[in-house]
Amino acid sequence: MKFLIVGPKTENTKDLILEIKKRGALVDVVSPKEFVFFVEQGEFSVKVRKKNLLEYDIYLLRGYNKTLTETRIFAELLLSKGKVVIDGTVAFDYIPSKLYEASKILRAGLNYPKTVLVTDNKRVEEVVNELEFPVIVKPIYGQQGQGINKFNNKIDLINFLAQKDNSEKFLIQKFLEIDGDIRVFVVGRRMVLGAMKRFVVPGDFRSNASLGARAESFPVDEEIEDIALRSCEAMNYEVAGVDLARFDKKWYVIEVNSTPQWQKFKGITNINPAQEIVSYAIKKYEKNKR
User: Fold this and answer.
1) Contact present, 5 and 16 (Cβ < 8 Å)
2) Within its chain, how far is the Cα of 147 from the centroid?
3) CA pair distance 3, 58, nearest whole angstrom
4) Is the pTM of this model over 0.85?
5) d(CA 119, CA 173)
6) Contact 124/161 with Cβ under 8 angstroms?
7) Considering just the CA atoms, what is the radius of gyration of the chain in Å?
8) Pick among 3.40.30.10, 3.30.470.20, 3.90.76.10, 3.40.710.10: CATH of 180-271
């Protein structure tokens, strides 16, 4: 059995490699930036350093936003050949957009913060009077809390967006007065591994682990489990980190991350998602062989 991890070499990648080797399987790691596509003699192939990437059994896609088109083509090719791809959603139903995510979450009947997007940043004046300040402004393709700003009045918001080119799209979102959010880890669409609460960073309004937010283990009740699983189903993700926030006596879905990092989660909960991801992948592979 041969695994290929597609993505950067991070601590999460090391966890996956360790778990794969524990099971006696082979594993390689490549970056999608290294892909070389060949169309020749009636064949379509993908190689890295002359190695044929179609010769593996299980593929774990862990980082591809900057090479989404190439990774999508690769994933679709793999699925057409009956390979196990996690997460295969990237091949046919993945748009790295928080606006798309909001649309899917709402259609699933879940709560999502009030959100506005204008396709022309200079037209924000047309909707600014409908907003409740303060608001959060986040890049539509952002991650790990990067590029997020808080505005307390409409003048500052208008001035900020007026300086931005229309190639940069932003969501304007209701600011929720909370002390932190909950990260729920899901594997295999049906298994909730656990959850942690990340507290707002002192002097900031964000609670991302990448920003050094304090965190602690958080109990998963039936309501949280149901919301997390329905969020994964809505996005069609096999592995996900579902971020929830409690506000005004309701749970809101803040984000559903298809390639969640887990070092903070592992340290807080003593749960290693790599174990479950690898186990799930092997079970899926064995089922496909029958």
Assistant:
1) yes
2) 16
3) 5
4) yes
5) 15
6) yes
7) 20
8) 3.30.470.20
